[in-house]
Amino acid sequence: MSVELYLDLFSQPCRSVYIFAKKNNIPFEFKKVSLFHGEHFGDDFGKISLIRKVPALRDGDFCLAESVAILIYLAEKFRTPDSWYPADVRQRARVHEYLSWQHSAMRWHGVRIFWLRVMIPVVLGVEVPQEKMDTALEDLNASLDLFQDKFLQDRAFVVGDRMSLADLVAIVEMMQPVAAGLDIFEDRPKLSAWRDRVQAAIGKELFDEAHRTIMESQETVKVMDGSTLKRFTPKILRMFM
Ligand SMILES: N[C@@H](CCC(=O)N[C@@H](CS)C(=O)NCC(=O)O)C(=O)O
User: Fold this and answer.
1) How far apart are CA 30 and CA 46, in angstroms?
2) Distances in Å between the alpha carbon of 19 and those of 136, 149, 189, 198?
3) Mutation test residue for ligand 1: of 11, 39, 48, 172, the one with most atoms within 8 Å of CB
4) What pLDDT is attached to residue 45?
5) Ligand 1: residue whose CA is nearest its atom 3
């Protein structure tokens, strides 16, 4: 029985898991969990992950949540090429360093822009005060600066000349504000050259396929039935505003 991956490609961590599995020819069954229909709150998904977030994995009687844990599990179980998750202890530590940092920095700052620019005004119909938007943008820019100055420096990729899990997790998060109409790569030549290398390493076809849902999201949300999401308006506003 192949691995089951519970995914919604609206979600950045789902895209990293999806791209990683596809790129490495890992056999898996795609189990769609629609976040906007609240499927992650259903009984079936509760048996896979009590955290009730995607991505999640089931491999026989073994269930796993958290994208980073899933990526590492797949890398180790399927012995993917060393560059993704290097055996060298210092290179691996660099990958861990980025994966640890990004949760509360790049990921949070990127996703916040998406919610403030797209989901909250369009789907929930709540106006976002300009100062909230300005602060979110400042935070995102600070994370992007840190990514360039600390994690990338003058290297081609985070860990040198080969793409690793760190680059994969970084690019999917950076695409979230891009999908919200904010081109973070404009005026950042070093970052856009890195983005081009990452896209080439993944393969443009797979990259675009994985990002299609999110890149179309500004159109999708206009006709979306937001009733499920609206039930969570207070929680969403508490999180992002
Ligand atoms: N730290 C988790 C984050 C997962 C996560 O936040 N997933 C979001 C989609 S991007 C989700 O499932 N949200 C549903 C909810 O919060 O109700 C990971 O890296 O897997």
Assistant:
1) 17
2) 28, 26, 25, 12
3) 11
4) 97
5) 66
Cβ-based neighbour number of residue 220 at 10 Å: 16
Question: Which DSSP letter does residue 52 get?
Answer: -
Topology, domain 3-80: Glutaredoxin (3.40.30)
> What is the DSSP track for 174-237?
HHHHHHTT--TTTT-HHHHHHHHHHHHHH-HHHHHHHHHHHHTHHHHGGG--THHHHTTHHHHH
pLDDT of residue 37: 87
List the structure tokens of 140. 């995102």
Residue closest via CA to ligand 1's atom 5 equals: 53
pLDDT at 223: 86
CA distance 57 to 71: 10
For the chain, domain boundaries: 3-80, 84-240
Quick one: which H or E segment has residue 57?
strand 56-59
Start-to-end CA span in the chain (Å): 43
Task: State the CATH architecture for 84-240.
Answer: Up-down Bundle (1.20)
With a cut of 50, list the residues of the chain below it in pLDDT: none
Alpha helix stretches (DSSP H) within 103-186? 108-114, 130-146, 165-179
The whole-number pLDDT of residue 140 equals 98
Fold equal for 3-80 and 84-240:
no
